[in-house]
Amino acid sequence: MKFLWTLAAKNLFRNRLRSIVSIIAIAISVMVVVFARGLVTGFIDSTFSLYIKYDTGHIKVVNQEYRQKERLFSLNYPVDGFNGEGLTSMIKKLEGVEGIEMAVPRIKFGAMASTDDDLITMLGWGVDPAKESKFTGIEKQLVEGRMIRPGEKEILLGKGLLKKLNRQVGDKVTILYNTSFNSFKGATLRIAGVIESGMPLLNDTIFYLPLDIAQELLIMPDQATEVLLVTPNAKEAAAFYPGVKELFTAEGAEERYSVEPWNKANSVLEYMQVAIRIYDVIYVFLVLLASIVVINTMVMIVKERTREIGMMTALGLQSRDILKLFIMEGTVMGITGSLLGAVLGGIVTRVLSVNGFDYSAIVSGMGDEFLMNPIIYPTFSVTHMIYGFLLGVIVTAVTCIIPARRAARLEPSEALREF
Amino acid sequence: MALLELKGVEKIYQQGKIEVPALRGIDLIVEKGEFTTIFGPSGSGKTTLLNMIGCLDKPTKGEIYFDGQELGDLSKKELALIRRHNIGFIFQSYNLIPVLSAYENVEFAIRLTDGRTESEMRKKVLDILEAVGLAGLEDRRPNELSGGQKQRVAIARALVKEPKLVLADEPTANLDSKTSDEVLEIMVRMNQQLGTTFIFSTHDPQVMEYAGRLIEIRDGKVSREKKGEDIRVHH
């Protein structure tokens, strides 16, 4: 068997240009697969991370009714604790569940502010400043001023919103909102700081204010619209989810509250998980496309070497040996091309994983519906290189069966007559 | 016992709806150690007959016995195993593998057979290459060898596994007369030294001079047969 491998490898040097073209085709496709996988993983990981931070947490707790009407930011269906005992007590109990590092409460509500000639629509997020900083790292995005403090009537907002409001740090701004009793009110708050994230939602739409101030203004004592539970990491969230559910059952609150892990709490994330599987199929087709070049090469090789196949059959090689020999020859091309492609793909991904891809022009035009980082860093991973390599080798080897079968089916006496 | 026995062998090729008879009832016995030449004009059926004898093709009708075994009922795999262990082939156009050296081309044939150690195989290959006069040229590739040298490699490849039968189809057709003589002398020497049975096809009178037995084929039938001194007298 070893000598057949040696022969297969040596045969690559018969028509170097043709072999090189085939190898390059495989190398390019594998390189694209490795890079695309890194890019998609980088994009999805970063998007998942954003959704976890700003929407779902690792486990999201909201009122069942609120879940149905989440887009309306209704304040009538709050998270107000188990059996009406209040949010603070509920958070304490949730943080006592194994694996739950932190319970982050938020009140999300719609608000407006007027400038000289415009009415600006905004989203207010009442947050616990310490927990929010720890969970989302929002404080690190400060470009001016400071983080908001509990008990202070102040806000933190994005650079874009600050510009729209035509204000500066330290200025006051009057915001208009509906309370939980649906009465239309206004409040004047001081701008404590400005953040810059590049994301339209944070930059142009949201302003943060301390949770206690939001509760006071919106008349939501010891309440929130959502509580996000934080586990050590997203992958482990599912393991701690049953413990959380048990608590809600024990407290008789499983019907009142919707408790969902991050990957179920937002449909965008569910679609993206489907997208990962679709991409895997696309990768196979990509390599399959490149292997057409190899099939073409192999068909030509079989045609050219018909007499040689006849000779080898005459020497006693069986049809299955001929089949193996040609599959081996294609596989050697597949191995060489895939190895080259995996290494090149790895290098390109590694370089771009440091510098990133600037998507800010696209992101700025996307609106605040979709959370996406303006700079995507492809994920460099040896697993992606191994995946690309194996995909290249397997697809090439399998597709080579077609021309190899043709060679194996040749009748020796007819093959020897071929000129 | 005869090495080869053909009884009423016929071969008909189907070309579309037309039947083309290539062999029309060949009866032939070849004894072990014979040096037989099959001659005849182009299209007479020489190559077809060699293909039948060499287990490369099956007759449409008739029986072929190789070393006492009837070939008609054997599967493709069984025929391949007979070729692998018992039959060596020499072709007009050498059919060497261009990416392999002379040594590797010969080694290719012996590697297909079982039961030999690496060192035994190496010794066999080197010995046979020396026997055909190619000592020192083992590492040369076919494109670095002359026509005669290439055919010597092909002879070495055919003989290295010590087959019972060597079939040569027009082995000197691509060689000049001097080189043809050299190649034929090697084959005669191998026939005498190893006792290997040789059957080769040709229409070259020079080749016939070396034959121990001449069989003429015309229109798919044995038309004449000569042995020993008769051959020399008539040519």
Any overview of this molecule?
The complex is a heterodimer of chains A (419) and B (235). With 419 residues, chain A is α+β, with helices and mostly antiparallel strands. In chain A, α1 packs across α13, α2 packs across α15 and α11 packs parallel to α16. The longest helix of chain A is centred in the N-terminal third of the chain and has 41 residues. Chain A is elongated. The relative contact order of chain A is 0.18. By secondary structure, chain B is of the alpha/beta class. Chain B has a single domain, classed as P-loop containing nucleotide triphosphate hydrolases (Rossmann fold), CATH 3.40.50. Helix content of chain B is 36%, strand content 28%. In chain B, the strands form 2 sheets. In chain B, strands 6-7-8-3-9-10 form a 6-stranded mixed sheet, with helices on both faces. In chain B, a hairpin with a 2-residue loop joins β9 and β10. In chain B, α4 packs across α5 and α5 packs parallel to α6. The longest helix of chain B is centred in the C-terminal third of the chain and has 18 residues. The mean pLDDT of chain B is 88. The chains are: A alpha+beta (419), B alpha/beta (235). At the A-B interface, α1, α12 and α17 of A face α1, α2 and α3 of B.
Concise overview:
The complex is a heterodimer of chains A (419) and B (235). Chain A has 419 residues and is an alpha+beta fold.
- Gyration radius of chain A, rounded: 31 Å
Average pLDDT for all residues of chain B: 88
- What is the CATH H-level superfamily of chain B? P-loop containing nucleotide triphosphate hydrolases
Largest sheet of chain A: 6 strands, mixed, barrel
- Largest β sheet strand count, sense and barrel closure of chain B: 6 strands, mixed
Strand order of the largest sheet of chain B: 6-7-8-3-9-10
Q: So how many helices of chain A?
A: 17
Number of strands of chain A: 12
Question: Could you name the ranges of chain A where pLDDT drops below 50 across 5 or more consecutive residues?
Answer: none
Q: What would you say the CATH architecture of chain B is?
A: 3-Layer(aba) Sandwich
Task: Tell me the helix content of chain B.
Answer: 25-40%
Q: How far is the first residue's CA from the last residue's CA of chain B?
A: 31 Å
Oligomer: heterodimer
